[in-house]
Amino acid sequence: MNSGLASGAFTPVVDRTFDLTDIAEAHRYTAAGDQVGEIVVTVDHGRSEQPESTPSRGLRPKGLLGLRSRC
Question: Which is more confident, 5 or 67?
């Protein structure tokens, strides 16, 4: 599978993209089970505000593709 991703034979299908500030909505959308592809959460490193809470463990809900950084 890794070689397929590296060669471009496999590409992830992104259903929706959420900003980190909308993480609760991203979790609700994932839990609803209506997604067709992966969910992407973007992180804007230029912001001075921090999210109200961060998970203490690196949990990855089913269908959550990962984080995309906008630097």
Answer: 5
CB 41 within 8 A of CB 23: yes
- Nearest residue to 42 (alpha-carbon basis) of 69, 12, 24, 2: 69
Give the residue extent of every domain in the chain. Answer: 13-70
Give every CB contact of residue 62 below 8 A, 6+ residues apart in sequence: 30
H runs (alpha helix) in the chain? 2-7, 23-32
pTM, 2 dp = 0.54
pLDDT tens-digit map of 33-53: 888 888 999 998 775 555 555
Q: How far is CA 11 from CA 8, 14, 21, 65, in A?
A: 6, 9, 26, 12
Closest CA to 32 of 62, 52, 66, 60: 62
